[in-house]
Design a protein that fits this description.
This protein is about 50% helix and about 10% strand. The chain is built from 25 helices and 18 strands. A five-stranded antiparallel beta sheet has the order 10-9-13-17-16. Strands 11-12-18-14-15 form a five-stranded antiparallel beta sheet, with no helix packed on it. It has a four-stranded mixed beta sheet with strand order 5-6-8-7.
């Protein structure tokens, strides 16, 4: 084996990785700590990790029994959400999270924590693959790889939001695909027509492009659209820059052809994973995040004004929590960026200098973050998540400079060059090691195994009242986590239906109702309907309220049980005004509901109270009978009473994914004033059925099939026997 072989580099990288992180975190894990964060970790990311594991486990169990039903909607997520739409943001669909199937009991926190190192290690391998594709020197690549995997983005973001690490894995492979395409076009000659060039390109590079772009893009789109979108924006710039460097300004058509060929495989990969990707897009588009005015951001002068304090975040402790994604640039990287401008003239030097100038200019512009987040978020600080691209450019600059030909003619000076390379390598390791070693001492705002296990349990799991009541109802409870001031998402892993939750992407109608209730906008996230007092019946069909005595007991609730939960006394209260999750009404009796603008906006708390008072006084509310919910199939069934009420209200957030049936016949639904689902029944006794199917699922199936057909056609073209004697020739 040659010392400069790729396998040798991987072996050295693996050894350093194991020693560095093994020594750094031995005490961290021995002390019972985990990578579950106090904020967002216990209530969102770890909960979703466990949910994914149980979801996959249930699917496998069902498949083995011949049941191929794939649940798409879960009443235990928030107040009822599309599974992929709500949880893809947290990693639902990420193939690496398949290990969550084994995350049971005390093993869960450890398996979740180990995924950080798995992602980090694979990201390093991907970077080494890119360096090999670019013909960088192996020793220089080993220096750069640790800059790529240890920086502000990985330690400031990925350690808290582990799914962010996926982009570091698939991005280098996709860039390798672009390089492969441009090289083949250059080797094949550029004087042919575009159609013939496309045929030659496909015939020469199909398999490599398939491996470099198609497979990673399938993985990327399963992980989520958030960072995939950022990468697509970056790819436009990358293709333009590399294309001009390779072909020159006179070959624009060739550059466009190569870029389109890369885009074709990227799009095919996305379409091939449509069954996960498009439901997640549907969830985003139906959420409050998709309602920010793009034009107002673009034409706001402040977003084009550089924020100079950002530059201090490169080396100093950032003044803002979100600027930490920028920091932790090593001294070796700074030296490399400066040295790049003094290297002998070459295309490589020019490209890197331009790239670094662009990075230093745009990192301080708020509009950059808005662009890379798809204008789906507000706040300059939040939008520094795109800076994984900045760290990639710095790492590549370091690798290039260390391996560049410095035109040292005197042999006696060669040891000096090697000494500088070794010194840079040591600088990277020292900077990396100090960062890694310092974090366990600070415990990185993590929680220990015992706390994680407690926070993923729930007082509801300890109640005999709930255990002995198999009916369909919702539960409200006081916050019990000791690590976060946010509501919990334990309902989705404990099998009950709640109204208290914290989700980043959720049904916009529920968001509007929640904002109206609390009196201000929370902006693209919601803590649900916790602690809403006597209106809980109206808001979600709450039958039981769990309290440890820190909040006032809602009107109309009576104590039915007390029990001990981790040394605390909890009491269960039953709602004497419970109406269930579905009821019928006579809208003409309530007054408020006869308004022609009904359903345009949720009712305020005072309007809720007036609404129910009038309806109850007039006897215009009647609970539905035989209410049954099939969580696996996403079907709600109930029977209406034979009375004068001619509308039915179901306490599920309104969604276009629901189809209603009255006595087996299709019926239209509309948005209720409570932002729930309602339909006209015409009065009398009826069998009502509500079925959920993601609005994008049919489109996703068609696109998946189309992607497979087109990919098969490209594979057929790649084996054209008229070109290479009946076999596929792979150009290196």
């Amino acid at each position: 084996m040659k010392k400069n072989s790729f396998i040798y580099s991987v072996m050295i990288y693996t050894l350093i990785f194991v020693l560095l992180f093994g020594l750094a975190y031995a005490g961290f894990f021995a002390g019972g700590m985990t990578f579950v964060t106090k904020v967002d970790g216990t209530d969102q990311y770890y909960m979703s990790f466990l949910y994914f594991g149980r979801y996959i486990g249930a699917l496998l169990k069902g498949f083995s029994a011949g049941d191929f039903t794939i649940p798409a909607y879960d009443l235990s997520i928030g107040m009822g959400e599309d599974i992929a739409g709500a949880l893809n943001y947290y990693g639902f669909g990420d193939p690496l999270y398949l290990v969550s199937v084994f995350a049971t009991g005390s093993k869960g926190p450890l398996i979740f924590s180990m995924m950080f190192f798995v992602r980090l290690y694979l990201a390093g391998i991907a970077f080494l693959v890119y360096c090999r594709k670019m013909d960088f020197k192996p020793l220089a690549s080993l220096c750069g790889v640790f800059c790529y995997i240890v920086n502000g983005f990985t330690y400031g973001g990925m350690t808290s939001y582990m799914g962010w690490g996926s982009v570091l894995i698939y991005m280098p492979f996709i860039l390798c695909g672009v390089e492969e395409i441009f090289r083949v076009l250059k080797d094949e000659g550029q004087d042919k027509g575009l159609l013939q060039s496309f045929k030659d390109l496909n015939s020469s590079s199909f398999k490599k492009t398939f491996l470099y772009i198609f497979i990673p893009s399938v993985y990327a789109s399963m992980c989520g659209f958030y960072f995939l979108y950022m990468l697509c924006v970056f790819l436009v710039v990358y293709c333009a820059g590399r294309g001009l460097a390779i072909f020159g300004i006179g070959k624009i058509k060739t550059i466009i052809l190569g870029s389109l060929y890369a885009a074709l495989f990227l799009i095919l990969g996305i379409l091939a994973s449509s069954l996960i990707f498009f439901p997640s897009i549907s969830g985003f588009m139906g959420s409050e995040r998709a309602h920010i005015s793009v034009l107002s951001l673009i034409f706001d002068v402040k977003n084009w004004t550089p924020y100079l304090p950002v530059y201090l975040s490169f080396v100093n402790k950032p003044e803002s929590y979100y600027f930490k994604y920028i920091c932790k640039v090593t001294p070796a990287e700074f030296a490399a960026v400066a040295a790049a401008f003094f290297l002998p003239k070459s295309k490589g030097k020019l490209q890197l200098c331009i790239a670094n100038v662009i990075i230093f200019l745009v990192v301080a512009l708020p509009i950059t973050g808005y662009l890379f987040s798809g204008f789906g978020e507000s706040g300059f600080e939040v939008n520094t998540r795109w800076t994984f691209l900045m760290h990639f450019v710095f790492a590549v600059t370091l690798v290039y400079v260390l391996g560049a030909d410095w035109q040292v003619k005197r042999q006696s000076l060669m040891p000096l060059r090697k000494g500088i390379v070794i010194a840079a390598f040591i600088s990277v390791l020292v900077s990396t090691g100090s960062e890694v070693l310092s974090n366990p001492q600070k415990k990185m705002s993590r929680v220990d195994v015992e706390t994680v296990l407690r926070n993923t349990d729930s007082p509801v799991n300890h109640s005999l009242t709930v255990k002995n009541d198999p009916g369909l109802y919702r539960i409200s409870l006081d916050r019990f986590m000791s690590t976060s001031d946010r509501p919990e998402n334990t309902a989705m892993i404990s099998g009950y239906y709640g109204i208290s939750y914290w989700l980043s992407i959720m049904n916009n109608y529920t968001q509007m109702a929640s904002d109206t209730l609390i009196g201000y906008e929370q902006e693209w996230r919601s803590d649900g309907f916790s602690h809403v007092g006597e209106y809980e019946t109206a808001l979600g069909g709450v039958k039981y309220y769990f309290s440890k005595g820190e909040y006032g007991i809602p009107e109309g609730y009576e104590a039915v049980e007390s029990f001990d939960y981790y040394g605390e006394k909890w009491t269960v209260y039953e709602n004497t005004r419970w109406f269930g999750l579905a009821y019928t009404r006579d809208p003409s009796a309530g007054g408020l509901l006869s308004d022609e603008n009904r359903g345009a906006a949720p009712l305020s708390p005072d309007e809720y109270k007036a609404y129910f008072a009038k309806m109850c006084e007039a006897g215009a509310l009647s609970p539905a009978q035989n209410v049954v919910w099939d969580n696996k199939k996403g079907i709600l069934k109930f029977t209406t009473a034979d009375n004068g009420n001619d509308e039915a209200v179901i306490m599920l957030p309104y969604s276009k994914g629901f189809s209603a049936y009255i006595d087996g016949q299709p019926a239209d639904t509309f948005v209720d004033d409570l932002m729930c689902t309602a339909l006209s029944t015409g009065g009398g006794s009826h069998e009502i059925e509500l079925r959920y199917r993601n609005p994008m699922i049919k489109t996703a199936l068609i696109l998946t099939f189309a992607a497979i057909v087109l990919l098969s056609f490209l594979f057929y073209l790649s084996g054209d026997p008229s070109r290479h004697g009946g076999r596929l020739v792979m150009k290196e």
